[in-house]
Specification:
heterodimer, A: 502 residues, alpha+beta, Beta-lactamase, six-stranded mixed sheet, 19 helices, B: 435 residues, mainly alpha, three-stranded antiparallel sheet, 3 strands
Chain lengths: 502, 435
């Protein structure tokens, strides 16, 4: 019996030895693989929330997003706060333990979390000195005063304002309403987050998507900047003369295209110059320009302005953004020439910013910047630099341009034409005494029974451009179906430019 | 004293070890407070005094009633109980944990009572069948309508008056005593009882088949896979130790496998257990209850790594039922592989001492009883530890002395009390002083 008891002992020890082997496998050898299993998201989040995430700030130190110690009893050490409420919601995005990250919280995550290689020195010294690991701070190019002005100027309207430095592409203001407060999705209990998420997603105004750069709209007459560019690049000068009927019967159809309000441009004269037509925003003239240019040349110009090509109705999305940006940007769109082969008259509608032309205020601000910048389109930039927790610069984001969109001479001519719009034409409400503004109005139909969307896109001062602005006001704003871009959107652009340059 | 080999009595060793266990237990409790709330719990003094007082009283009782006892058993039990209690305070609301602390104290009282009532373990040898019958009744009590009731799909509970408990926890002690008694008496018969093929003769297979049937009854009537496996495993080990016939081990193994197959084919919940075990981390199943539980256990262990997050600093509360079945995984997360291994080594130490006690006895009953009790603790520990680490399918049995659960805690301390008694030999208070 003694021998058997000893054998039993050996057997039990062996049994436990296998157990130790399994423990070593789970806890050490395979631990990383097991920890990174997608179903372990709760612990991964807890680990993430144990690091003090970096702040998002403006150049002068206004805090847009920060991590503060979580209230007692929370499972997480920190929670994310957005002291500016919904004002910078689309810029910072949210940082939610349930719904993930968006906007800069997403695109700058390696820096904010401290994982980026540029921050290795800082996090290593934190470790070495026994300090809490902290993420890097992100500095944005937004001018906080201008952001406030954009909000005030839009008032109760639904719409968006994008203002940028046309030379550097720095975003000076980017505001869209109705918006959302990222705190709702980033702090509080899980139940509170879920309620907010449900409400925001059920809202028909889609507050989680920025009108300024995540949605697409018909540009209407604003697109005449592109049509005029194509014309100028292809030898139709500003003084070129065009037939001036008040309606245009489209080739191969009985369909007629009319001027805004069915008015007759240039006092009813039989001819009109390109610059006059631009000033008065004559649809008929620009439809003629589009038809004369042909699909190839027109589409090439749209592409040069960074619009991606689509082939409706089959293909309506871009393969990838042609213009890179730190925020999720819906590139503007213009149909592939093949699209017009099937239906030539549509070129006339495309020439006046209808049919399948799609843009948003950021895209229009970029187009205006290209004109203002001698024809070179800057790459939009909203993050200027990343600093580590000690304040040392860890990464700078340089100024870059996307491409040359038009020649310098076309840019100069177009500037004159846009000046004429403000000085003598539809954009007079954007004029500022002492500052020469160059701009273009747009009033885009919004479908049967809905008030039109009002656009205004401009830059100033015209000869030494420091700011380019594009504004959209949905559903005609407070003027409803009577609204035009000149009436509703131009005054908003004016307020923004005035605030920036004064 | 013929049954007891002489052993140097070192009361101070036991006391020092017990103080070390006490310090470790109180330190764990303090660290839980620091990790969870950033401060030492306010009641740390009351806590240490209560626990220390109880441990010292238990030690005093051993000194008084069993002066020649093994000095290591009580400190190991104290350490496991104290660590388990600290983790229960970390995982559960204070009032629930307080109840468990009371159960630990009741367990220590039961330990002392065991030593005082069982003055000589050989007394137990006298009532073989009474004890066996009582054990069987306790084992099957939860099945009795009106007395037994179900919790989480297993029918393990019985209530007698206001008291609800798991009678099988106590039943298994009586069964082990019965087996030790029965097998030591029938030893010669069993040793000789071998047919031409080296197999036990049909009539000697009786006890084996009876135990097998009882195990299956536990499995089918109470849906308690863990207890069923444990019960049969201990039986096979004891009959092998008693008889010396490997044939019993082989036949037992075959019957065990057959029982497993029958259980698997007949019972959904056995099939589920196997499926959870095999597919715990697969994307399609990982978010379902049974699978997710094992996945969370692995996540907890893996995130603990080698040294752990520190007590109160991990997230073992993400595992369903972290304080009962999965308490080892909670330790794995917060004390790491080193801490988990240390706890398992305490069990290895306990098992080693238990078998040493068996070897030190010369009578078959004492040897078998010590071996049986030790094997019960060993197999139970292995079953749950291997279950939560996904070495084998999970069957919910408590980790002895550590897990949440009053019945198991008290029953295990009674078993430790019996082992102490077996190691110490008879208590002769009347003749104390006369030498």
């Amino acid at each position: 019996m003694e021998r058997r008891i000893r054998r039993l002992g050996i057997a039990l020890v062996l049994l436990f030895a296998v157990l130790f082997g399994q423990l070593a496998y789970v806890q050490v050898f395979a631990a990383d693989d097991i920890k990174n299993h997608p179903a372990n998201f709760s612990r991964q989040l807890i680990a993430e929330y144990n690091v003090q995430r970096g702040k998002i700030l403006t150049a002068d130190g206004l805090v847009l997003a920060e991590s503060v110690p979580a209230p007692k009893g929370s499972r997480y050490r920190f929670e994310r706060r957005y002291p500016q409420g919904d004002l910078y919601g689309y810029i910072t995005g949210f940082y939610s333990r349930i719904y993930g990250r968006s906007a800069l919280e997403q695109s700058m995550n390696p820096y904010l979390s401290g994982e980026a290689s540029e921050l290795a020195l800082s996090t290593f010294s934190d470790l070495f000195l026994g300090r809490q690991k902290r993420g890097g701070n992100i500095f944005v190019t937004v001018d906080p005063n201008l952001q406030e002005v954009a909000r005030t100027a839009l008032g109760a309207n639904k719409g968006a304002v994008v203002a940028m430095d046309p030379q550097t592409g720095d975003i000076l203001a980017l505001y869209s309403t109705p918006g959302f407060d990222p705190s709702e999705l980033s702090s509080g209990s899980d139940a509170e987050m879920r309620r907010a998420w449900k409400r925001l997603n059920a809202d028909p105004t889609k507050p989680l998507l920025a009108l300024s750069h995540q949605e697409l709209f018909l540009p209407g007459s604003s697109f005449k900047i592109v049509t005029a560019s194509a014309g100028l690049e292809n030898g139709f000068g500003p003084e070129s003369r065009w037939p001036n009927p008040h309606r245009l019967t489209l080739p191969l159809t009985n369909e007629q295209l009319q001027n805004f309000g069915d008015e007759h441009c240039n006092g009813g004269s039989s001819q009109i110059t390109l610059i006059q037509a631009f000033e008065e925003s004559c649809n008929v003239t620009f439809a003629e320009v589009g038809l004369r240019l042909g699909a190839e040349r027109f589409a090439a110009q749209a592409r040069a302005y960074g619009l991606c090509d689509t082939l409706p109705p089959e293909r309506t999305t871009c393969d990838g953004p042609l213009i890179s940006f730190e925020l999720p940007f819906q590139n503007g769109r213009f149909p592939d020439p093949a699209y017009f082969e099937r239906n030539d008259p549509l070129l006339a509608f495309s020439a006046i910013g209808l049919d399948n032309d799609l843009v948003n205020p950021l895209q229009m601000a970029l187009i205006a910047s290209a004109v203002a910048n001698g024809g070179v389109m800057p790459q939009p930039r909203i993050v200027s630099e990343v600093r580590d927790s000690q304040g040392r610069v860890a990464r700078e984001f340089g100024v870059r341009s996307v491409r040359r969109a038009i020649s310098a001479s076309t840019a100069a001519t177009l500037t004159q034409m846009m000046i004429a719009v403000v000085n003598n034409g539809t954009g007079y409400r954007a004029a500022i005494p002492g500052i020469q503004v160059a701009g273009k109005t747009g009033t885009a139909t919004n479908g049967e029974g809905r008030a039109p969307n009002a656009w205004f896109t401009a830059f100033a001062p015209a000869q030494n451009p420091q700011i380019a602005v594009s504004v959209i006001v949905l559903d005609g704003g407070n003027l409803g179906s009577e609204a035009t871009g000149g009436q509703v959107a131009a005054p908003i652009v004016r307020s923004v430019i005035e605030a920036y340059l004064r | 004293m013929s049954a007891i080999t002489s052993r140097p009595v070192r009361p101070r060793t036991g006391l020092l070890l017990l103080l070390a266990a006490l310090v470790a237990s109180v330190a764990a409790y303090a660290m839980v407070g620091l990790g969870l709330r950033g401060r030492v719990p306010r009641d740390i003094v009351v806590y240490s005094l209560t626990l220390g007082g109880a441990y010292l009283l238990a030690w005093g009782a051993v000194r008084w009633t069993a002066p020649r006892a093994d000095p290591v058993l009580l400190p190991i039990a104290g350490m496991l109980g104290g660590l388990g209690l600290a983790m229960i305070y970390r995982l559960l609301p204070a009032d629930v944990a307080n109840a468990q602390a009371v159960w630990l104290l009741i367990g220590l009282v039961a330990f002392v009572l065991t030593l005082m009532l069982v003055r000589d373990d050989r007394q137990l040898d006298a009532y073989t069948y009474t004890i066996g019958l009582l054990g069987l009744i306790l084992l099957l009590l939860p099945v009795v309508p009106g007395v037994g009731f179900e919790v989480n799909g297993a029918r393990l509970w019985a209530h007698v008056g206001p008291l609800a408990f798991q009678p099988a926890e106590f039943g298994k002690i009586l069964i082990v005593i019965f087996l030790a008694s029965y097998l030591s008496a029938k030893r010669e018969l069993l040793e000789a009882g071998v047919g031409r093929l080296g197999l036990p003769r049909a009539k000697d297979l009786g006890p084996l088949l009876l135990a097998w049937g009882a195990s299956l009854a536990v499995l089918f009537l109470e849906r308690d896979l863990g207890a069923s496996m444990l019960f049969f495993g201990v039986f096979v080990v004891m009959i092998w130790i008693a008889s010396g016939r490997v044939a019993y081990l082989v036949t037992g193994g075959i019957l065990f496998a057959a029982g497993g197959v029958i259980g698997y084919l007949a019972l959904d919940h056995v099939q589920d257990r196997v499926a959870y075990w095999l597919h715990a981390l697969e994307p399609a199943t990982v978010h379902q209850v049974g699978y997710g539980q094992l996945a969370q256990s692995w996540f907890a262990l893996a995130s603990g790594g080698l040294v752990g997050t520190g007590l109160g600093r991990g997230s073992p509360d993400l595992i369903p039922y972290p304080a009962s079945d999965f308490i080892l995984s909670a330790f794995g997360e917060e004390l790491g592989m080193l801490g988990t291994a240390a706890i398992l080594l305490l069990f290895v130490g306990l098992i080693g001492r238990g078998l040493r006690i068996a070897l030190d006895r010369e009578d078959a009953f004492g040897r078998l009883l010590a071996t049986g009790l030790t094997t019960t603790i060993a197999l139970q520990t292995f079953t749950i530890a291997a279950g939560v680490t996904r070495l084998i399918p999970l069957t919910g049995v408590p980790l002895p002395l550590v897990s949440y659960g009053g019945s198991s805690r008290v029953a295990t301390l009674v078993m430790i009390g019996l082992l102490v008694r077996i190691s110490a030999g008879p208590w002769q208070p009347a003749r104390r002083g006369s030498g």
